[in-house]
Amino acid sequence: MAHSARTDCPELPDFFLLKRLARDQLIYLLEQLPGKKDLFIEADLMSPLDRIANVSTLKQHEVDKLYKVEYKPIVSTSDQLCFLIRPRIQTVKWICDVANADKATGRFRRYKIIFTPQKFYACDAVLEEQGIIGDVTTDEWSFYLLPLDDDIISLELPEFFRDNFLAGDQRWVRTAGSALHLLHSLYGPFSKVYGIGRCSKMAYESWREQVEEGEQKARQAEIGKVFLIDRDVDFVTPLCSQVVYEGLVDDIFKIKCACVEFGPDVTSSDKSIKVMLNSQDRVFNEIRNEHFSNVFGFLSQKARNLQTSYDKRRGMDIKQMKTFVSEELKGLKQEHRLLSLHIGACESIMKKKTKQDFQELLKTEHSLLEGFEIRESISFIEEHINRQVSMIESLRLLCLLSITENGLLPKDYRSLKAQYLQSYGVDHLLTFANLRQLGLLVEQQPGETLTVMESKVGKLVNDRTGGETGFLFNLLLITIFVSLRIRAGVPKSDEEYDLRVPRDMAYIFSGAYVPLSCKLIEQVLERDGWTGLEEVTRLLNGHEFAVTGYGADSKAKNDAQRIILVMFLGGCTFSEISALRFLGRERGCKFIVVTTAITNSSRLIEALLDNLV
Amino acid sequence: MAFITANWNPLGEAFYRKTELYEMCWNLRDGLRDCLVAAAPYGGPIALLREPVRRSPSSRPQLEIYSASGVAIASFPWKSGPVVQLGWTVSDELLCIQEDGSVLIYDLFGSFKRHFSMGQEVMQSQVLEAKVFHSPYGTGVAIVTASSRFTLATNIDDLKLRRLPEVPGNTWSAGEVCRGILMSNGPELYILDTTSCTAVVPPGLGPQAGSIVHMSVSFSYKYLALFTDTGHMWTGSSHLQDKMSEVDTKKTTPPKQMVWCRRPKSQQPSVVLMWDRLLMVAGVSHDTIQFPLEDPCVLIGELDGVRIISSANQELLQEVPLVCQEIFKIASMAPGALLLEAHREYQKSSQKADEYLREIKEQSMLGEAVRQCVEAAGHEYDSNTQKSLLRAASFGKCFLTDFSPEAFVSTCRELRVLNAVRERGVGLPLTHTQLVYRQFYPLAIEVCRYLKIPDYQGVSRVLKHWASCKVQQKDLSDEAIARAVCVKVGDSPGVSYSHIAAKAYECGRPELAIKLLDFEARSGEQVPLLLKMKRSQLALSKAVESGDTDLVYTVVTYLKSEMNRGDFFMTLRNQPVALSLYRQFCKLQEQETLKDLYNQDDDHQELANYYVTASYREKRLESRLSLLQTAVDEYNKAKNEFSAKATEEEMRLLRFQRKLDDEKGAGLLGLSLQATMEALLALGLHKQAEQLYRDFRVPDKRFWWLKLKSLAEKEEWEELEKFSKSKKSPIGYLAFVEVCMKSNNKPEAKKYVSKVTPEQRVKAHLAVGDLEGAADAAIERKSDSELAAVLARCPASDRQLLDRLNRAAAAAAKK
């Protein structure tokens, strides 16, 4: 990126260790069932498993055939069945059905269930209820963390979000604590832990408990600070359309475990290609954090450079040619392949996103974020619903509208919902109930109109003016209500904001909005705590904490103190990761993002649907 | 010293020695004849039951417990049924396995603790043989009944009975616990596990060897020995892949006992066999060592040898460690042997000491010599031998400058402790844990501190054990005990108050248990005991506090089975975390319970949602409608008018759809309003579509969009034109242009361009690809953004148009 980044960013710790630990344990568990066996794998564990142990590794340990769990009767002829699953009641019930079906036909097999990352009591309860607890052996594969890239680690638990925030089921909290404990024991001790949100607080406590139970080994810390944040602290950011390249690719092509499948329209052949998207891909690494408007220019420049490199061949003598072929050509070819894929992806994105509809959608989103032209936005959303453009997108816009306006006026609330039900069926009543419960789509309470709130905020702002932190504080408050209209000094629209030379994290939303989650992280790190942010945390429902020191000196000025681990409970988006990378470059530190899953607006909304069709 | 090798017996390349440990303190009138005897490994206590098979119902056999040196610990008359087998657990509890399959557990001091049964079916057929075994899971029990059925419990503290499949032929001749149960039937060998009985063949053991009548697994479960009725003994690995040797014992009667004798790291394991008057050591080579026996004896396999207990004394039979061999072998020139000699000469003030020393130093082996002496001292049992070896080591060390004293110091320490506990009065334990179980607390704590065992493993465990006993003291008040425990234990790491509290509860002191639980810092630890004590409410809140959902769930399941439904729901109501957890479970497992839960809470909103969900699972329209009606009622109760109305409309729609499906076979049932109207329009049922539009107050815009798209799709252009003129379009006319273009009908699209509002006219012209028109419109409106939009689309070849636009743009900019 063409801006003045600090050059003294510390090196990231190596997370390959996590993969090796997971693989070794899996092999050990497989060997606990000696002899040939068929392995049934939960569908959403397929990709993560592939990153840990490939098919040949599994075969080496006497796995005969691999099957995906499909909740159907099985066809395996093996005498030993091994199931690798998430601790879900539905899957355990299916295994019971399989075992009971075998019993009914008088067939003897050995069954082993490997739960990952842990087993829940409810699973045993189901096994017991179905009368097969004596016939199966169970184990736990403590595969908590999958490194997706140098600086992204995922728990690969998308259900965390719904279970925890909607259903109030805290079963995954301990899992998050254990994941943190694993990181702490390998890369700690952490010198400082900050956090906000109820779930963060509980995960933190669960981790503390595990630290106290275990033995403490003195070691050189590789990660200094930790920030825990609940997804429900900031819903606006993940609800926005992403315009940074990596996020955009995720929105359109759906990145799964750092891997994307480009269809024929991108590859310009009749085949689909699976591509790993990480820092190993040099082309991708240079554009992943860029605003989309810059990507095309960058890629064409790159293509020209590549051509020049190829052109060097001309006028070479045989010897030079030989070294060129042996040393450079392979790299160039690889780069060429990647470049053409990303150009293909860009063209495909352009085709979709330069359409009138998308431009207007973005415009509406920005108006909502900036608090302009609310009536126009509402009629846009209305039309969106009426024309049935997209079931998910309409809901997303409704939620954005509700959050940014502090709830919908009763009249709008009813009519928009009614129109939505007409379009997509009355079963979405349940979806609306979910959205209301989470506070994503609510009716405005009398006396809580935005103007009232604004004046409250305005008063706060005025109270603070004169203080050194005045401006930042304003910005933060403003970010919360997302209404940038109040203050000057904040960029208003993309004409004024040079996206090639971003000034702040707002560039990830074309300068319209600084992601609240990242802004909070920045502020807390800068202040080394929550002092001065009391009003903000009150508005965000609190549960904030900042705790110092476990065996490490936080004042120590070593590199580890500039490695900051941010854990998102309930998922984070690629845009947030890009924003944090930007912040890291500005501040000369590095962020490692640990998330329960990578999310985006459609995944977030889909998790809250309750229609039955 | 010279006669130290006197009791050495060669066997192949190794030597075996039999050392006396104790002259037994006990005074047994009839010796060990007709006794059931069990001794715990690691020098543990000995249990003795005389005449287990009662001669008459009135005679009561005596059960006696002795320390390893024969000091009586407990003795009481046996009042229960006939005992088949005695055995010790890893924590020195005595197991008495009765003929009827019940197992009684006593502690070291002979007080009854609890009992369990090996299964109902055992009652009828009686236990024929039983074996107590130790594994990483704890102590297990295996039994076989008279009807040749095997039952296995791998850990008696977490009792799970596994009844093994039937064995072929329903007979067996010998059995052993190893990877399941290993069992022989004549010459055949089988492995019996939970699911199957698999025949296995020990490599190199032909059928001519005869039937297997005895078998034995080594202390570490690594080796297996089989004895056949032709007197052959086969040895090999327990996974039956390698054979080690086959020895002809020339004895055709099966031995009374057969035990492995092996020390870790030894390359030459051997087996000790015992007949009535003979003890035989048979190894890898074909030689054997034979000892005559005068008294009946019992063999106990240890980690590094075999203990032989007779009524008079106790001996240890073991392979002589290599290092001892090297030092004490006659005419040995090993550095250690030379150093020992040197020291002996030195004590005699003889100059030969220097000669020996010089010889070692010339080979620069002095370090090795010291190391050998220290190591050998650790292996010797006689304290005089230990002393001379250690003195020699210390002597040799003087001539070394950089020799680490650590091994020397720790060996001295350990030997001191070992010698102390070997004292007759204490018994023979090897480790501090066994001290603890014998209630020598101060000694145990001293030992732990002396051996510098980390608190976590040492002192804390002693304290825990002490506290567990303390709470059983009946003469002290709850207050006093709680205070005493708290003062001593404090917050030592690794001492769990809940464990101590559990003990207190076991002895019937619930109040004390509660007091002690208050000291427990981790709330999760308190839960299991609280449940046991029926303080379920408190248990639930502690479980919630712990943040461990598994624990919460355990309590919830428990409450569910213990309480009546109403109380159960009330309890949950006060614990939102537990409630949502249970709800999640019900959603997947028990839908009906979910309904009851909502009912209990008068949560009409959730109830209504529940009925809506249920209605979708219903196939028949009538039942679906009635569920929806119930949902409407509940929504009304919840004062959610919006949802009530929406649901009512849904019912109306369903009826409408059913009617049309019946009349026209339209296949509408279950579609959304929008989809229904679409389907109707596609079928050409415009009248019905209009009816819905009116009845459901569909916004004009929506209907116009729908009809526009539908007509365009069906390419009914005339209809479309009529429709466009029916009244002023609420969605404007640009939509008409765009929809026509989508259907690739430019001429139709152009018809609507003129009707488009001025604001959108440029867009409309552009949409149909009419640049000239777009340019005219843009110039007329003098809008620079619109001009730019047209410019962007204008091909470079059209100079004239470009110029016109540029001029207009410049003019607009000037303004």
From TrEMBL, chain A:
Keywords assigned by UniProt, alphabetized: Protein transport, Transport
Gene3D superfamilies, sorted: 1.25.40.850, 3.40.50.1910, 3.40.50.2060, Syntaxin Binding Protein 1, Chain A, domain 2 (3.90.830.10)
Membrane disposition: Peripheral membrane protein
Subcellular location(s) per record: Late endosome membrane; Lysosome membrane
GO cellular component: late endosome membrane; lysosomal membrane
InterPro entries: Sec-1-like_dom1 (IPR043154), Sec-1-like_dom3a (IPR043127), Sec1-like (IPR001619), Sec1-like_dom2 (IPR027482), Sec1-like_sf (IPR036045), VPS33_dom3b (IPR043155)
Primary location class: membrane
BP GO annotations: protein transport; vesicle-mediated transport
Claim: NAD is one of the keywords in the record: no
PANTHER family xrefs: VESICLE PROTEIN SORTING-ASSOCIATED
Family (UniProt): Belongs to the STXBP/unc-18/SEC1 family.
Protein name in UniProt: VPS33B late endosome and lysosome associated
Organism: Sander lucioperca (Pike-perch)
Lineage: Eukaryota, Metazoa, Chordata, Craniata, Vertebrata
From TrEMBL, chain B:
GO cellular component, one term: lysosomal membrane
Subcellular location: Late endosome membrane; Lysosome membrane
Domain Vps16 C-terminal: 495-807
Similarity comment: family membership: Belongs to the VPS16 family.
Any one GO biological process: intracellular protein transport
Protein source organism: Sander lucioperca (Pike-perch)
Membrane topology qualifier: Peripheral membrane protein
Name of the gene: vps16
Quaternary structure note: Core component of at least two putative endosomal tethering complexes, the homotypic fusion and vacuole protein sorting (HOPS) complex and the class C core vacuole/endosome tethering (CORVET) complex. Their common core is composed of the class C Vps proteins VPS11, VPS16, VPS18 and VPS33A, which in HOPS further associates with VPS39 and VPS41 and in CORVET with VPS8 and TGFBRAP1. Interacts with RAB5C. Interacts with STX17, MON1B. Associates with adapter protein complex 3 (AP-3) and clathrin:AP-3 complexes.
Main location (coarse class): membrane
Keywords: Endosome, Lysosome, Membrane, Protein transport, Transport
Pfam families the record matches: Vps16_C, Vps16_N
Name by which UniProt lists this protein: Vacuolar protein sorting-associated protein 16 homolog
Function recorded in the entry: Plays a role in vesicle-mediated protein trafficking to lysosomal compartments including the endocytic membrane transport and autophagic pathways. Believed to act as a core component of the putative HOPS and CORVET endosomal tethering complexes.
Sequence ranges assigned to domain Vps16 N-terminal in this UniProt record: 5-409
Classification via InterPro entries: VPS16, Vps16_C, Vps16_C_sf, Vps16_N
A GO molecular function held by the record: actin binding
